[in-house]
Amino acid sequence: MEVYVLRLGHRVSRDKRISTHVALTARAFGAKGIYFSVYDENVFSSVRGVVDRWGGDFLIESVEWRKFLREFDGLKVHLTMYGIPLTEKLDVIRKSERVLVVVGSEKVPPEVYEMCDMNISIGNQPHSEVAALAVFLDRLLDKTFRMKFDDAKIEVIPCEKGKKVVEKP
Prior knowledge:
Number of domains: 1
CATH superfamily: SPOUT methyltransferase, trefoil knot domain
CATH topology: Alpha/beta knot
Family: Belongs to the aTrm56 family.
GO molecular function: tRNA (cytidine(56)-2'-O)-methyltransferase activity
Number of strands: 8
Subunit structure: Homodimer.
Order of helices and strands: EHEHEHEHEHEHEE
Protein name: tRNA (cytidine(56)-2'-O)-methyltransferase
Structural class: alpha/beta
Distance between the termini: 32 Å
Catalytic activity: cytidine(56) in tRNA + S-adenosyl-L-methionine = 2'-O-methylcytidine(56) in tRNA + S-adenosyl-L-homocysteine + H(+)
């Protein structure tokens, strides 16, 4: 299964850190890439730097979101606290070959709720889009601890106490 993320509504002056975390969470939890509705060089270069050091093939680009959402060839899932609980639709989502996960920032335009195939909630209380994306990808893909990148320059070696990091030449 290929999973991509569409980040809507990035505000350059305010959302740099949280949008970077959305992208890094997408990568760390197994998504193939992320599309932004707004281009922000700081966010893009930061994420590309992580991919360069930590490895993998992770796409990051900006798109005109309405056109992209209309033309995406796969299941379109909007994460919103107003949606159907993930547990009720997880088996249906898992049957898809390609999934686009839509996460917002500021108020999501009402048309997104109609353009997506599913509106899915992780919980019905206010929470972070980073948390929602992490839970969604972990439950859907369940591969966070099995991912290895041959081209990684840095690798964490799990240990019970302390930190062990290997830097490869």
